[in-house]
Description:
The chain is an alpha/beta fold. The protein has ten helices and twelve strands. It has helices spanning 3-6, 42-50, 62-65, 88-100, 119-128, 141-148, 178-181, 197-206, 236-240, 260-263, and strands at 26-31, 53-56, 73-76, 79-80, 83-84, 104-109, 133-136, 161-166, 186-191, 214-219, 227-232, 249-253. Helix 3 links the parallel strand 2 (53-56) and strand 3 (73-76). It starts with a helix and ends in an 11-residue tail after the last helix. Its EC number is 2.1.1.107. Belongs to the precorrin methyltransferase family.
Amino acid sequence: MSPKEALTVEIPARFLAGSAESGSGRVDLVGAGPGDPGLLTVHAVAALQRAEVVLHDRLIPQEVLDLANPAAERVYVGKARSRHHYRQEELNALMIDRARSGHYVVRLKGGDPFVFGRGGEEAEALAAADIPVGVIPGITAAGGCAAYAGIPLTHRDHAYRCQFVTAHRRSGGTELDWAALVQPQQTVVVYMGLHGLDKVCTEMVDAGAPPAMPAALVEQGTLPEQRVVTGTLGDLPERVAGLEIQSPALLIVGEVVRLREAIAPGGGGPDGGA
């Protein structure tokens, strides 16, 4: 069997549904992964190639958008911190409108749609409107960025569990359970960890984590511009200050961060760079 034959995948029939001619539309929430176009799944590429409408987030690389059907309508619906091009209600209405017009809509989201991507909210809105909706998972930012940084999220000697949390929550939302985040032998991954870095580090120490607990901030993870800053809960904010780190950035806390020195002394990623 040739490599080409080995990689042949039967494309689900749903990618061929949803056209103006058939009169039936649908929406697939598609995970684009953490940034590196090479981390797209085969099904994600198939969906993009057959899309009639692509609604894409802010952090989707141009190389990924270039894979989409050239005839597809493309709408930027990105959200930056405190700056939303579309409010969530408007975005939901847009997806419903395009699907009801008979189109196959790809809602293209960074990472995985169901991991801090509001995919659950969007799927609920579509289902409530009787719009067929599917999910094509993507490699999570946590998994991709940690791997490219040379940091295993779990390890039999250091971490038997891993928690994903976000430093950016709905206005008026409940505070994080800091006591749960400082349990031994676990890794904590904080999405959107840059703007809340000082608070997260301070609160974890106040909750009982040792100030010497290893921590790393991964900027532009999996991309050529990736930068990894390592330190501890006690000194990482100071190490980051003045470096002009930009979002997206992911915070990883736990003993597994120490393993980066052995696993990726020259950096992570497929090319060995950080």
